[in-house]
Request: fold
Amino acid sequence: MKIIELTAEAKKDVLTALLKRGVGQFPEHEKVVAEIIDDVKNNGNQALFHYTKKFDKCDINEANIRVTKEEIAAAYERVSPEFVAVMKRAAKNIISFHEKQKRESWFETHANGSILGQRITPLDISGVYVPGFKAAYPSSVLMNVIPAKVAGVSRIIVATPPDANGFVFDGTLVACDIAGVDEIYKAGGAQAIAAMAFGTKSIPKVDKITGPGNMYVALAKKACFGFVSIDSLAGPSEILVLADKTANPRYIAADLLSQAEHDELASAILVTDSQELAEKVLIEIDKFLDELPRSDIMKASLSNYGFILLAKDMEEAIALTNEIAAEHVEILTKAPFEIMPKIRHAGAIFLGEYSSEPLGDYFAGPNHIIPTNGTARFFSPLNVDDFTKKSSIIAYTAEALSEIHEDIELFAAKEGLTAHANAIRVRFDG
Reply:
């Protein structure tokens, strides 16, 4: 990680490097994923069990694919009461935040008898993918399930890979129970996505699939989109810290590394107009790398996708922040609330030195399933709306339609759709 003066060429290089991490940059894996999806689509459980044996080294069948109440109870015994209590408090915050996102159906009537409106209804069944063991994050269970629950989805299932002995990560099971998951299935990888997208004898077809996963999971979600709705094609995690000379370099270094530790493709970026701050942050990063256990991963991440970009002034720094459109944006400046309205493209915005990014990951309440790889320019964090659908309501009386029928007939005629025009005209013949 080094300090780079922000020139047009440097900006182009950074943006190009970041785009290389997207799911669309790995076409060599798409053929493998397509074969798995077709197999599960055509052969159902037989294919699902085959791939579970092949990839997870576990014998799963119709009798043991679904997690039992006894398995969940046993997981509670192995998870510390303190952690259970923390998850419950986090869930309470997440519920409170997402309940404020709920929207109601609406209708309006007019004097001529016409009624227009919008009816909002929840999806029938939602599927959540939860990675296994080393990548198992109970916080993601809460973030994926609770918005669906708040939206009123009546059936929520989880698919998560088992270990070789058929066990599912204890934290995942407890988080599923706290969040209110209805069914948990022992299935992982692209085969689990295909099972939820098309259905098998054991796993129901869902309306929407959400949740993080590896490259194969992401590619499977991409391939199944259209047969089923998905949340997004999330890429590796990323953080951008926008800071001026007043910021604490130790806090910045710690926050940058909090994302760099995810994996080698994670991105950590500091954008500042202070050379002095940039140099101090580098020193603090080196100190932390000597202390923290996942330093190998962090070093690889910083080497490939870590940048300290030195802007000539704060306006240039803000412009670059909007262009990168990062998943997480921290504003560590003298007056962060003055900067915040100028940030148009960001998944989540953290204001001030005590709003560190992990606060959003675990506890504050806003969703941590956030658009990555520049997609914050047009995508939003996972929210209650993602688990609802809207139906337009139209009801006209004869009087109301008579006032406008000639307009409709003319419009249809100009498009050459005579049957459209006729469907209106017949109501007023004679």
About this structure: The two ends are 80 Å apart (CA to CA).
